[in-house]
Fold each of these.
Amino acid sequence: MKPQKKLGQNFLINKSAIKKIVDALEISDSDIIIEIGAGTGNLTQEILKRSKKVIAIEKDKSLIPLLRLKFQKNSHSLQIIEGDVREILPTLASKLKKFKVVGNIPYYLTGRLLRIFQELTNAPQLIVLTLQKEVTERLVAQPPQMNQLAVIVQLWAKPKIILQLKPKDFFPPPKVRSTVVQLKVKSSAERYNKEKELIPFIVCGFQQPRKTLLNNLSREYSKEKIKQVFEQLNLTEKTRPAEISVEMWITLFEYLNS
């Protein structure tokens, strides 16, 4: 089966890597696994060895008959859904109690998909994604190398790099390096209750990452108020957005909006 370039398809073929990805899902008997982009079913096959219920989403119409044929004996434990995960996942998640997600995600889909995960009312317990290496490195960043994506994702999940992949681990070999990241989703009790309001604040703070946080936030708040809050929080006027933690972003938001 020839992958479609327009869908960003590169099928993972390294069996050892596939097993490590499934290990990272930490599957228990009761887990429902949603697979994004089942492709030719290499990962699906390994998941089915450990999970009693798998829901495979595949956008490429030409791959659906192949998947149905390959897994015709697994119809009791595998549901194959044709379509775009961006449209399917919100509705699907609302019908499930507990679930985990796994997938090899093309670059163009990454940002939107991460936002969908964050906005789900019923969020997955655990997510394991194969992403472009540069994206994964941004996700796990810590001060003083924070970035907007890292802060927003770390509001709702704890990211951890699991595995580095080589181009030869895929067919066809991609031109970029890929990395597997595990995202342990925080419980509703652990998450900040004003997350939705906080995100525009973070975006404002990172509007010009190389500028000071004071200058960026002064678009929305008076410099005098920012300086007063900075003094209370032991931040300096030279502090840059990359230098502060997720917890400090929350504290700063609370102080400036009190």
Amino acid sequence: MAATLIDGKALAAKLKGEVRARAEALPRKPGLAVVLVGDDPASRVYVTSKRKDCEECGFYSEEYALPAETTQKELLDLVAGLNGREEIDGILVQLPLPGGLDEREVLLAIDPAKDVDCFHPYNVGQLTIGAPVFQPCTPGGVMEMLRAYGVDPAGKRCVVLGRSNIVGKPMALLLLHAHGTVAVCHSRTPDLKELAASADILVSAVGKAGLVTADMVKEGAVVIDVAMNRNEAGRLCGDVRFEEAAERAAYITPVPGGVGPMTRAMLMKNTLTAAMLHQGVR
């Protein structure tokens, strides 16, 4: 079996086109503020890409590039100011923050109605009870991909590798809300290989190149590779050994070009949602 490639780039372009069309109908443009502290190269790439996404979607955007020496108070004061500005619908503080800054306190300071990353405990709680205001960007992007390719999690065994607050846990919740039977695996799971091989839908978000081998992929499974790693040759790759897994899977995402573009597109969708709520538009 040769797997069908799930084209995240094409799906993201389509979603951003839909977002732009809806944004143009609003009384004012959606506004997104992105805060970057320090000079982490990967974070700089992400922030630049988000600015381009805003341009594509017709959003108003602001970027705050702060030095690594920024104090907790200075960062919290900036967030408080952005919370109070009517033209800013979404606030994104790029993680990780430099050492010495309290990420939890910063995320708690963001107005939940502007928390377009869906990291605030209020929004995590809404997600847990099945009434999310925003979709966590990466897990939400995965669900959009499954829908686009006609994959319904209902009644299927879904296995998530990784239990992070950003991907693993919310991914499991979204699959559960879609009536999947969900198992979450992590570093202390003794039978990880067997559980993975039982999955109809396998989502890997561990961050370990080559973790998922062919014998961990069920014949006909849907394989979603969320991770972004570099192999020994320095090339971008995911957790999944793509070539061998593609021989067994029915659907599979590439790295790059799979989940990453959809994560960015979901941020735009969340910012649109926030703008609609702030402007009283349904």
Amino acid sequence: MRIALSTNWNNVRLDDGAAIADEAVALGFDALELGFRTMPEQIPGFKSRLGRMPVESVHAYCPVPIGAPSGHPELHQLAHRDENERALARLLLKQTIACAAELGAKVVVTHAGYAGLDGLFRNYGSDVLRRVLKWPDGKPDASRPHYAKLVAKARERRRKRGRALLEVFRRELDGVIPDLEKAGVTLALENLPSLEGFPDGEEAEALMKDLAGAPVRLWFDTGHARVRECHLWDDPATDVATRFAPHICGMHLNDVTDFHDDHRQPGWGKVDFAVLKSLARRDILRVFEPHEPVTFDELKESLALIRRMWK
């Protein structure tokens, strides 16, 4: 089973793309995903190691656009109500597709955008819901009746806002699909760890039905799915994985405690990776996406754990 490493883990600590790839080899990974923190000057180093460490996916936007203060997957959003914002997102996405094609990667992972939940009299955004979630002692508890009632209202507003955004996003994809087809690259829409994250399940189903045969698929992030489940923003993560398995072309493996997007190594938190085995064994990309606090030894041990669990 091939497993890749996201360069977001070490491409701030290491300047040279070749050194980043060599570290992934030492850990026992089979491939790389170039993360959104990848700098243009690191690309030649990655190219020099393609024979030993291929690049299977690229996370938009990559490399970091000239003039951007830092790398970020949401510098601009293709699913957005503002036309200028969408135009900038489309430009950066096309540059990422070109980068993927140049390195032989077959998938570009993207954060499409958000269906905002603000309002004139009431804001149902995720930050508001998180504050209501906590008891006075600061501990989160999704079983609180007041919280559940508020989430129900927020999800209803989310459905309405999502439908409107879906039409805009679908039109934007028409301008990107020709570039994907020419490059031989698939665009993968990642599930995001907030109620506003677009697309949600209903929107993803509509897109996959409408775009059957087009190079647009879904990307499953294990930590994001767990965060959504714990906040009652979505069905259980394992149910989501099963429901969308035919449309998923890859997954990010990261672990969380429950309510926070921790991005730690698998085995550290509460994501049930054993139950996700059926998804992982499909013909998809599997990418570890830890953040910097994870050490070399922790990551190596986690990789061995997942290989044993999913062999």
Amino acid sequence: MRMKKVLMFAIALALLATPVVWSAALDGQPAEAAPPGQDNLPANTITVTGKGTAYGAPDIVRVGLGVEASNQDILAAMEDTNARMNAVIQALESNGVAAEDIRTENYSIYQDYSYGPGPMEMGDQPAPTYRVSIGVNVTVRNPDRVGELLAAAVSAGANMVNYLQFDINDRAALESEARSLAVDDAHDRAEQLAEQLGLSVGDPVRVVEGGSEYSPLGYGGGGGMDMAASAPPISQGTLSVNMSVTITYELLPAG
């Protein structure tokens, strides 16, 4: 008798639990899980992306300088290149560039088999000319002196200016300004859309920063650029930092 009561109690529990299982699906359709990160969002939201741009003057310049010498004697070409680069570095340091702001970035030796002037017999191969080059990256911390330093380097023996790149050493302040502008832009966009829908914008419920976009201003000179010893005119211009932010706002009835 006692066993029969226990069995009936178990069946009753099973019947009570059955509607809970059925409630997970309606009309034979499985219940869908909320998308990742969306389970806590209010039902009515709007998502917009705002953009902001901040401008600033460059405070450093990175200059690619080089020396190239050629000779049919490879050791002579190397010695010539080394001596001229040492003179260039000394001229830069004498004009206030710190030693730690001068970094060697390439050293190459190239065999040039170009035919020289005059006729050659069939089957003859010209003697190679060895071209030796050294390139350095120079960080100039006073952009106003770029032209002066280029003239000093060329006068000392530099015969290649590979690039000239204006940059901002610390972009944190510009990024902060651009981010603030991006947030304001996102809120303005949300309000315009909400107004067209007859609603109003509530609190932000999610914010995703899209990161920054920044491109230093550069000029390429190319190898073997011949420059006069006088200071060339250099225009600094301005640089920009772009930030984007995606914000999801709650939508409320118009007040």
